[in-house]
Write a structure and sequence with these properties.
By secondary structure, the protein is α/β, with parallel strands linked by helices. It has helices at 2-21, 102-110, 137-150, 164-174, 199-213, 220-225, 229-235, 237-244, 249-257, 262-268, 281-290, 303-309, 314-318, 344-351, 369-372, 374-387, and strands at 43-45, 62-66, 72-78, 87-91, 114-118, 156-161, 179-185, 331-336, 358-363.
């Protein structure tokens, strides 16, 4: 009981603070498209630096917002065509940015939806704080809501992939009225308290999967947790690109990416995996610009892993009552048949107990299904939005 009261009070205080910070405008209180009412601490730059996105078709839709928190987020924004259409919020994972949603932007915009896809904290044109504590899920959820408010967006249809899925999970927890539907790609919902992605949780999953399936799926987390791991990836960017976007996830992700120590050894030896046909040389060039060492490289983005692995969310997670664990809106889970790290079974097992209105669809794809099978993924998401 005390835990529920504490959680309710903290959520209320957060809402009140946001109300005054944003000039009296609350996202949750605006079910459609609210008028843009920017507080004095929220400003939008319509012409941010996009030099790392050369050739990207969506560049005219890139903006940057300085939030009440003081952070600056770069994001892609297509307004909806009419008041009957909501905006789709896309949350990317690692090693990505808003660029990994490039095959969704035009599709959903052409159907009349709005689109908003941020470079998450530590990525692309968004701020890259060195403090790992800035990357807690509660903090990031609050900043995403601030960004939506700055952009004049009310209720949304929310989509998360990879590490964007834990973030979407906590946006659902802390802001349950913000989204009308949820879509999780490859990685399922993470119910509170989030323990599976801490050092202890990762070790337990690796040991269990090694014993039952013969391989470790998340051994690379201990490498990513090391300070300076990003500089190793910076030095061997071509190698890391090849194994991240390989066309053979079942082999390379099971035998190299997942097992403890092997990804680090692979990139340090500058080895190459066969790159998938779903990405181009031009895509690699943009990716390399986004993660160029002079722009911060991979090190800031790895802070997402470190905050989870080091259990920096512990206090926030323990304050969440059991009554807030379920997803109260319709959920679509798209699983990746060829991903040995985010397996369909694990994704569904983490989601089904907490999503009464759950639809599951398996995509014959590796991890980056929104790129590899864009047409199928787009169709599945749109049908869910329109028909469920």
């Amino acid at each position: 009981m005390a835990r529920s009261v504490y959680f309710a009070i903290t959520c209320l205080l957060s809402a009140v603070l946001s109300f005054f910070e944003l000039g009296g405008h609350l996202v949750a209180a605006n079910p459609g498209r609210p008028s843009i009412l920017l507080g004095r601490n929220c400003t939008i730059n319509e012409h941010p630096d996009v030099s790392d996105l050369a050739g990207a078709s969506y560049v005219p839709h890139v903006r940057a917002a300085r939030l009440p928190s003081g952070r600056t987020y770069r994001y892609v924004h297509y307004p909806p065509h009419g008041p009957e259409k909501l905006t789709v919020l896309f949350l990317h994972g690692f090693p990505s940015s808003a660029y990994d949603w490039r095959r969704q932007f035009a599709y959903f915009a052409a159907l009349g939806y709005g689109v908003l896809a941020p470079d998450l904290l530590g990525y692309g044109g968004t701020d890259k704080p060195a403090d790992v504590g800035a990357y807690t899920l509660k903090n990031q959820a609050r900043e995403i809501v601030e960004l939506l408010d700055c952009a004049g967006v009310g209720m949304v249809l929310s989509v998360g992939h990879d590490l964007g899925s834990p973030l979407l999970s906590r946006i659902a927890t802390y802001y349950p009225t913000l989204s009308t539907k949820y879509v999780f790609l490859d990685i399922g919902y993470d119910a509170p308290p989030l323990v599976d992605l801490t050092a202890a949780g990762i070790a337990a999953l690796n040991a269990q999967t090694l014993a039952t399936e013969g391989y470790e799926p998340l051994g690379y987390w201990s490498f990513f947790n090391e300070t300076g791991a990003g500089r190793v990836l910076d030095t061997h960017q071509d190698s890391f690109w090849s194994i991240s976007y390989t066309d053979n996830d079942p082999v390379y992700w099971k035998t190299v990416f997942g097992p403890t120590g092997l990804l680090e050894a692979f990139v340090k030896a500058n080895k190459r995996a066969p790159v998938g046909g779903f990405v181009s040389i031009e895509d690699e060039a943009v990716h390399n610009h986004i993660f160029a060492p002079e722009r911060g490289g991979y090190e800031p983005a790895l802070n997402h892993y470190r905050a989870l692995y080091r259990d920096l969310n512990l206090q926030d997670e323990n304050a969440i009552p059991k009554s807030a664990t379920n997803l109260t809106k319709p959920v679509l889970l798209l699983t990746a048949a060829k991903d040995p790290i985010g397996t369909p079974a694990r994704a569904e097992r983490s989601t089904r107990p907490y999503a009464p209105a759950l639809r599951v669809q398996e995509i014959d794809s590796g991890h980056f299904m929104m790129l590899e099978k864009a047409d199928e993924v787009n169709k599945a998401i749109n049908e869910f939005f329109e028909n469920e």
